[in-house]
TrEMBL record:
Name the UniProt record assigns to this protein: UDP-glucuronate 4-epimerase
Pfam families in the record: Epimerase
Source domain of life: Eukaryota
Organism: Deinandra increscens subsp. villosa
EC main group: isomerase
Membrane topology: Multi-pass membrane protein
Catalytic activity line of the entry: UDP-alpha-D-glucuronate = UDP-alpha-D-galacturonate
Gene3D superfamilies hit by this protein: NAD(P)-binding Rossmann-like Domain (3.40.50.720)
Keyword Amino-acid biosynthesis: no
Keywords: Isomerase, Membrane, NAD, Transmembrane, Transmembrane helix
Similarity remark: Belongs to the NAD(P)-dependent epimerase/dehydratase family.
Transmembrane segments: 33-56
Family annotation (InterPro entries): Epimerase_deHydtase, NAD(P)-bd_dom_sf
EC number: 5.1.3.6
Length: 423
């Protein structure tokens, strides 16, 4: 705090002796031109009144800075660029896709409700990373029609990349309503918004490889039957495919559903098996490895995140246009479904071995026969349609992808100090 009489400041003017006494003076107020200081004070007062009115009374104003952020994030910086609303932008696939679009000059706005299914910390770090690269992520729920209408009033989205979902196959047993709400109700809310937007955006959304359920015919092709579902998660994704089909037929929305298989990589989902395996290996704890009937190892179509991102971006680029419900009889909006897997399954024990090799550590394995929990025992997928239509060609094998994942994991979480017991 500077002294009141700062030696560097000119001395204050001498105080003027009181010129009149209120009680005994014949005080007559008279008009005087206000001094500059008075004008300044009044202006300040007026400004603060207006600001508090706008902030407290007019809720619209609060959204103005939000809308500024949204508009700036939606700015296109390349010729023929697109403007994409990415739902689930703070999620694993959503964050990678958002960055890929932004880095090639598209306009990208994210929305995410930061649900606590696998903790919020990683989602917030992904959000910070996105904002560092100029992608703004609105904290909100896709199932909120007012939020959606504000977003579409603020920006003319050409595309929606709908990745927000309640994920996880096992958690559905515990909390079925979360799946119905996120994977069905939110999808309908979003489609309703897109249906009534002018222009209507094209929609690319996350279905799942799990829709093939108990099918035994391999490899799975898009034209194959997709019943019966073995999990509620799969049922909600299958329902989503049917719902989107209806919106495509009735309302002329361009729809592309992507059947993602087991996507892995840096910034991945901590609820997935490869994530819990690395955690346990590093902490010297045993892992549970499920096994199907007749002692058959489980197998999955592990697909690296960079390959999936290419599939998502190509889907946006080839989506065609929504045509609205007034489209002519000869014209129909595209409705497409693609498998996005690797085209070659790998067993879970093989995945664990690659992790052990990368970490130069061994882990104790509890091999458990899979109970009737509804999980699928294998996945083997035909990706030729995506190859043909999207130019989709996965290039990262599991060794390379897991090496990248392990590098990221050790960078992000650090190596635990607990000693691993070698087995
Ligand atoms: O294909 C899909 O659609 C789904 O792929 C994954 O589901 P999943 O393949 O079951 O992925 P993980 O939970 O990582 O499990 C991979 C394999 O490891 C097995 N596993 C899991 C956990 C465990 O402790 N031990 C174990 O052997 C599972 O049974 C499964 O065979 C994703 O988690 C889903 O969100 C996605 O939609």
């Amino acid at each position: 705090m500077p002294p009141l009489e700062d030696p560097l400041l000119p001395p204050p003017p001498p105080s003027t002796p009181c010129q009149f006494h209120l009680m005994n003076s014949t005080f007559r107020p008279r008009f005087r031109f206000p001094s500059a200081a008075m004008v300044f004070l009044w202006a300040l007062l007026l400004l603060s009144f207006t600001a508090s009115y706008l902030i407290l009374v007019d809720p619209g104003h609060r959204s103005t800075s939000l809308q500024r952020n949204i508009r700036s994030s939606a700015e296109i910086r390349r010729p023929n660029g697109i403007t994409v609303l990415v739902t689930g932008a703070a999620g694993f696939i959503g964050s990678h896709v958002s960055l890929a679009l932004k880095s090639r000059g598209d306009g990208v706005v994210g929305v995410d409700n930061f649900d606590n299914y696998y903790g919020r910390a990683l989602k917030k770090t992904r959000r910070d990373l996105l904002e560092f690269h100029g992608v703004y992520v609105v904290n909100g729920d896709v199932n909120d029609p007012r939020l959606l209408s504000m977003l579409f009033e603020t920006v003319e989205f050409t595309h929606v990349m709908h990745l927000a979902a309640q994920v996880g196959v096992q958690y559905a047993v515990e909390n079925p309503y979360a799946y119905v709400r996120s994977n069905i109700a939110s999808l309908v809310t979003l489609l309703e918004q897109c249906k009534s937007s002018d222009p209507q955006p094209a929609i690319v959304w996350a279905s799942s490889g799990s829709v093939y359920g108990a099918q035994n015919k391999v490899p799975f092709s898009e034209t194959d039957r997709v019943d019966p579902p073995t999990t509620l998660y799969a049922s909600t994704k299958r329902t989503g495919e049917e719902i989107t089909h209806t919106y495509n037929r009735l309302h002329g929305l361009s729809i592309t559903g992507l059947r993602f298989f087991t996507v892995y990589g840096p910034w991945g989902r901590p609820d997935m098996a490869y994530f819990s395996f690395i955690r346990n290996i590093l902490h010297g704890k045993p892992i549970t490895m499920y096994r199907a009937k007749n002692r058959v190892d489980l197998a999955r179509e592990f697909i690296y995140i960079d390959d999936i991102v290419k599939g998502c971006v190509a889907s946006l680029d080839t989506s065609g246009k929504s045509i609205g419900s007034s489209g002519s009889k000869n014209e129909s909006a595209p409705y497409r479904i693609f498998n996005l897997g690797n085209g070659s399954p790998v067993t879970v024990p093989a995945l664990v071995t690659i992790l052990e090799e990368n970490l130069k550590m061994k882990v104790e394995k509890d091999v458990v026969d899979m109970c009737e929990n509804g999980d699928d025992s294998f996945a083997y997928v035909n990706i030729s349609l995506a190859e043909r239509e999207l130019g989709f060609k996965p290039t990262t094998d599991l060794q390379t992808g897991l090496r990248e994942f392990v590098k990221w994991y050790l960078w992000y979480y650090g190596k635990p100090l607990v000693e691993n017991r070698n087995v």
